[in-house]
Amino acid sequence: MTVLNTRALNRATLARQLLLDRADLPALDAVAHLCGLQAQEPQEPFVGLWSRLRAFEASALSDLLAGRQVVRTHLMRRTVHLLTAADVLAWRARYDAMLRQRVLGTYRRELDGVDLDELAAAGLAVMADDEPHSMTELTSALADRWPATPPRVLGEMLIAALIPMVQLPPRGLWRTKGGVRNARLVSWLGEEIDPAPVGEELVRRYLAAYGPAATADLRAWSGLTGLPAAVAAIREELVSFRDERGRELLDLPDAPRPDPDTPAPIRFLPAFDNAILGYDDRTRIVDDAHRSVSVAGERVVLVDGRVAATWTVKADTVTVTPLRTLSRADRAAITEEGQELALFLSDKESREVTVTTG
After folding, report:
1. Quick check: bond before 170 cis, omega within 30?
2. What range defines the domain where residue 178 resides?
3. Given its phi and psi angles, is residue 113 left (phi above 0), alpha (psi -120 to 50 degrees) or beta?
4. Which residue in 270, 313, 315, 317 sits closest to 293, CA to CA?
5. Does residue 201 lie in a domain region?
6. N or C end of the chain: smaller count of CB under 10 Å?
7. pTM above 0.90, yes or no
């Protein structure tokens, strides 16, 4: 079985994640290809798409949210993701059990004695007016029924697990601040959730955007444990490799696996980008010594395809802090790409970049 070294996996990942060459794709198609974008920080998906698409305009993503073609909802790993309406309707049923178990795992003691079916019915009764509700409004309506349970715990269980919800605009729109207002997914989209839990197609979609990958990587990305049957059902469609640790990696036969020596450009990634979080073994893109920066929500810079720096923005100035020694050429390339990012983030008002000596 062919062994793919770390550099080969890195280049494959960059290609699948649209980070090797910016893609000529509409924003909606890019969100679909990437199987959604991590979005608990509302502005981060804009940077994620800017780094991946040619001539990306922030208004394009805002328009998709306002037009209900893309939604913000809890899904993979019980985190907020930006997904196409079609995907969330197709995928949500598969995630029901995982979302419930993850909230219970966090709040099992606080939810002791709460009948979850009864809680769901009560929440649906409050949401029956099809009006948006903040968590405070929702939990205030339920507090008298479960006085011993912290209201926020009731809200987390309802919003993140029991009732498929979306976070409504203006939250998530470009350069717009807004609190979380929740609506039922089916009322916002005007369509019912597909009751058949997706499996095989979810595996194919993941491999198209993240492969070659091990089943542990698929589990880490999705948060799901119930996909072995789906993998087994399509195994004959797939090709197999090994990584340098000896793990079996699965992939679609015609998916891109570029030459490991393909040059990789500087790329600025947003907080919690799935190019990093979408794997159990992240060494294809980040050294173990720097793994914590991704889970801590720091924005990172890829140099030669690997995490090599973090970045922040304040007063329209992008500041880059290296995690290792960078060559003069790397610093110049970071500055050039950082200037373009500063222009994007400031609506062309600033191109200020500082690369520290850290």
Report:
1. yes
2. 17-189
3. left
4. 270
5. no
6. N
7. yes
